[in-house]
From TrEMBL:
The chain crosses the membrane at residues 25-47, 67-87. The keyword Transmembrane applies. Keywords: Membrane, Transmembrane, Transmembrane helix. The keyword Transmembrane applies. It comes from Pseudomonas fluorescens. This is Phage abortive infection protein.
Length: 332
C-alpha cells in the first residue's frame, strides 16, 4: 500500500530517495474521509434502527452524534501537516540532487580547463623548443666562415665527440672502482671539451620536462606527454641531451624523466649510446637504463629468431670456407 503513495521510475538508482506522489496522497485522504463518514453514518443508522419518529429534534440529535468526528478531522489535519513535511522532504531531495550534479559538472569543467591550460602551455613551449633548436649554431673547426645549424650542428658535435673518444682507446666499462673512476673522469673531460652548452636550447627543454613532471593535471597522463616529447627528438638530440645530463649536475629534469618514464628510457636505449657510457651515467647519477632489447616486440618469437640466426651464421661460415678453398686453389 505504501508503495502506491510513491512514484516509480526505472531511471532511479537503488539508493535514490523515493518521490512522494502528492496526487495519490490527496485522493487517498479524500477517499478515506468519505469512507469514514459513510461508515459512521451507516453504523448510527443500524444502531438506532428501527426509527420510530422522524422530526427536526430527532434529526438534530442525529446530527450531534457526528461531533465525535471532530477528533478524526483533527487527525486529518495532522496528516496534512505530515504531507507538508513530505513535500519539504521532496524539495530537499531535489535540491541535494541538483547540488550533486552541479558539483560533478564544476569538477568536470575544472579538469577540462586544467587540461586545456596545460596543453596550451605544453605545445607553446614545445614549439619554442623546436624554434630554438633550428636557431642553434656551431662553427666548424678550421673554417673561417660558415656554420652548421639546428640538428646538423648537434650531428657535427656528436661526430666530433666520437672521433675524440676513439682516440682514448677505452671500450668496455671496467670492474674495479678505481678504473671506473678513471673511465668516468676521461669521459667527462672529453665531453667537457666537445659539448659546449647551448643554454637557450637546453633550458627550454628543461622547462618542458619540469612542466610535465610538476604541472601536469593528471599523474596518469604524464607518460602521454613524455611520449609526445620523445617522439620529437632525433637521435642526435637524444645523444647530445644524454651527455649534457651526464655533465651537468643541475640538469636534474632529464634524469627524473629517465627514472619516471619508460618511454624516455627506451628512446635513449634506441639512440645507439655505447654500453660503457650508459654504465658511466648509471654509476654517476644512479639512473638505470635498459641494456637489451628483450622487451621490444619482434615479428617472430625468440626461438625462431635464434634458429634463423644460427642458420644464417652457418650459411655464412660455409660460404667463407668455400671462398677460402677457392682462393687457395687459385694460388696453387
Amino acid at each position: 500500500m505504501f508503495r502506491f503513495l510513491y512514484r516509480t521510475s526505472s531511471d532511479e538508482t537503488a539508493d535514490a530517495i523515493p518521490s512522494l506522489n502528492i496526487g495519490r496522497v490527496i485522493c487517498l485522504c479524500m477517499a478515506s474521509i468519505a469512507f469514514v463518514i459513510v461508515l459512521y453514518s451507516v453504523a448510527l443508522v443500524l444502531l438506532t434502527w428501527p426509527i420510530d419518529e422522524i422530526s427536526i429534534s430527532k434529526s438534530g440529535t442525529f446530527g450531534d452524534s457526528f461531533g465525535v468526528l471532530n477528533a478524526l478531522f483533527t487527525g486529518l489535519g495532522f496528516a496534512g501537516l505530515l504531507i507538508t513535511i513530505f513535500l519539504q522532504r521532496e524539495d530537499l531531495r531535489l535540491t541535494r540532487s541538483e547540488l550533486s550534479e552541479t558539483r560533478k559538472e564544476i569538477k568536470f569543467q575544472s579538469v577540462t580547463f586544467q587540461q586545456q591550460q596545460f596543453e596550451d602551455s605544453f605545445y607553446r613551449v614545445l614549439a619554442l623548443y623546436k624554434d630554438n633548436l633550428s636557431k642553434l649554431s656551431i662553427r666548424k673547426d678550421g673554417l673561417s666562415e660558415g656554420a652548421v645549424q639546428g640538428v646538423d650542428a648537434l650531428s657535427y658535435l656528436i661526430y666530433k665527440f666520437e672521433g675524440a673518444w676513439s682516440k682514448c682507446n677505452l671500450s668496455d666499462f671496467p670492474e674495479s672502482e678505481d678504473e671506473k673512476d678513471e673511465y668516468i673522469y676521461t669521459l667527462y673531460k672529453v665531453c667537457r671539451s666537445i659539448f659546449v652548452r647551448q643554454s637557450r636550447y637546453v633550458e627550454t627543454l628543461n622547462a618542458l620536462l619540469v612542466m610535465i613532471d610538476e604541472d601536469c593535471f593528471s599523474l596518469e597522463r604524464r607518460e602521454c606527454y613524455w611520449r609526445i616529447l620523445a617522439s620529437q627528438l632525433t637521435v642526435y638530440e637524444v645523444k647530445y641531451l644524454f651527455y649534457q645530463a651526464f655533465l651537468m649536475p643541475d640538469y636534474k629534469s632529464l634524469r627524473v624523466a629517465l627514472l619516471s618514464s619508460l618511454t624516455f628510457r627506451d628512446r635513449f636505449f634506441m639512440s645507439g649510446i655505447s654500453e660503457g657510457h650508459r654504465k658511466s651515467f648509471e654509476n654517476l647519477w644512479g639512473v638505470k637504463m635498459p641494456r637489451s632489447a628483450e622487451n621490444y616486440s619482434t615479428p617472430l618469437s625468440a626461438d625462431r629468431f635464434k634458429l634463423a640466426h644460427k642458420r644464417i651464421s652457418k650459411r655464412i661460415a660455409i660460404q667463407r670456407s668455400l671462398m677460402r678453398k677457392t682462393s687457395e686453389e687459385v694460388r696453387q
